[in-house]
Amino acid sequence: MAQATPFQYHLEDLNPCDRREEKWRRDSRSIYKARVAHLGPVRAGRDGDASLVRVAIRGMRASNMSMKLKKIQRQEVACTTSAARPFGCMELWAGNERAHRSLELAGLEADVIAVPSGGKRGGDLSAVFSCSDNIARVVLADCVGHGYVASRVARHVHRLLHKFQDIRDTAGLLAALNDKFTLDSEKSSGALQLTTVVTGTFDGGTKEFNYAYAAHPRMLLWRGSESRFLEIGEGLENLPLGFVTGELYSEQSIRLQPGDMILAFSDGATEVRSPKGDQLSPRGFLQLAEATLANLPGPVRLAEFSSALLEGVQLHRGSSELEDDVTLLTLRLSG
Fold first, then answer.
1. Which distant-in-sequence residues (6+ apart) come within 8 Å of 220 by Cβ?
2. What is the pLDDT of residues 38-48, one digit of tens each?
């Protein structure tokens, strides 16, 4: 597995307008050094237990915290329209509503199952893109909160995804989303808006899957050769969208092999509680995924696996009605 390294644009590869925009982003990194009360545990979570990040996020929500940060202004210089970028993406499907969709991507099978809590729409946003150069991209975002407020934030994240969908680099996409999302949040009144995200980019030619996190639960990798699930992305927790601008995100890559599968999910799947109050936990969810896959007759269809895994989560809860939004996004190497 590749080492986690902070993403950096190569300025010489950008056109003059984009170069100026990226220079502003880097300059803002040195300005945004706010030391808020909750910054300590969030930073600790990035370097250690990802659950600390989510605990801090919930603490901010509970305190209805708002944060104003100093910002530097972009230079108002007219830019001419540059030639079209050689890399581009087209959205195949995206939504934050109750859904179950199966899609074919560049070298991948994909399946998304989403169950909002207490309504038709929720704060979990999933999106699937087909990109140039035989590349596919997936995004799963989990907006803090429930109901209408979380749904509104999810729609905003969706709009930003369209704005930045042609950024090729995985960590670069998170950096752009975070900066714009944070600045937009400053203009709104009320509590601090935070969103966790996991995004991955798959190269159908090299079979490499490049991924990055913004305080999101780690994905699970099913290694067909080992017949077990593994957590991937140690050290990649980073900060959620909306906390501070200028955050530099890190990314890692793995090469998928025949029979491999990747499972991304929102934290509603691991934090679900039984009638007695026992939380499923990340470890319990991993074991549930392994047991679910083992109990299905082969060859396993992704849609069947997603449905069976969701049923397992609901069984732990003791009800089909869940406390939090739950989304499962599963990918498998084609062929």
1. 229, 230, 231, 232, 262, 263, 265, 286, 289
2. 444 444 444 44
